[in-house]
Amino acid sequence: MEVDHTLITTLVERWRLETHTFHLPHIEMVITLQDIEVMLGGPIDGLPMIRSVKLDWFRLCHDLLGHRSPDAIPHPHKNKSILAGAGIRVSWLKPLFRGPLAADATDEVVQQHARYHILVWFGSILFMDKSADLVLVMLLQFLNPISDTRRYSWGSGALAWLYRHLCKASEMKAMQIRGALMLVQL
Q1: Of 44, 117, 140, 163, which has the most beta carbons under 10 Å away?
Q2: What is the SS3 assignment for the chain?
Q3: CA-angle at 128, arms to 141 and 165, nearest 5°
Q4: Mean pLDDT on 146-151
């Protein structure tokens, strides 16, 4: 199912900053944590997703994904850097994790591959970026160690991220939106 951009644009126009609701002709609607849990399977119980955002993103990528992203090297296809703010280009990561794991892969390599796949899934569903090629590097810190992933309320983080970007998108000068747009559409 693809995102219907016309529907999303129409809903954003009806988003009210004061109440964090969609004002429709005969009803007000809101996206809830239960919606995230039921429709997207995002866990809503657990620790809040609160950590530092003042990190060395290059080091974090290297430490948790096992690949050093070249600092200030342009992206080969788009003439853009691999790290953009707190996001990393999926088009750079994808070839690094292509193919099956070796039968004798170490636990560390298995965890790096798992982090990559979880990161891409979260980046394409819960924390979608407007470019569709960036995923938030800051999410990696919640995947270390990989066994801690279940401890966090990913649904709460995704809902806060969505509300923040619905508010930004409803501003007159806004051109695009981020967040769990599939949830908005559903």
Answers
A1: 140
A2: CCCCHHHHHHHHHCEECCCCEEECCCCEECCCHHHHHHHHCCCCCCECCCCCCCCCHHHHHHHHHCCCCCCCCECCCCCCECEECCEEEHHHHHHHHCCCCCCCCCHHHHHHHHHHHHHHHHHHCCCCCCCCCEEEHHHHHHHCCHHHHHHECHHHHHHHHHHHHHHHHCCCCCCCCCCCHHHHHC
A3: 100
A4: 88
94-116: pLDDT as tens digits = 988 988 899 999 999 999 999 99
**pTM (predicted TM-score):** 0.80
List the 83-84 sheet strands across, edge first: 83-84, 87-89, 134-136
pLDDT at 8: 85
pLDDT in tens, 64-78: 998 876 654 444 545
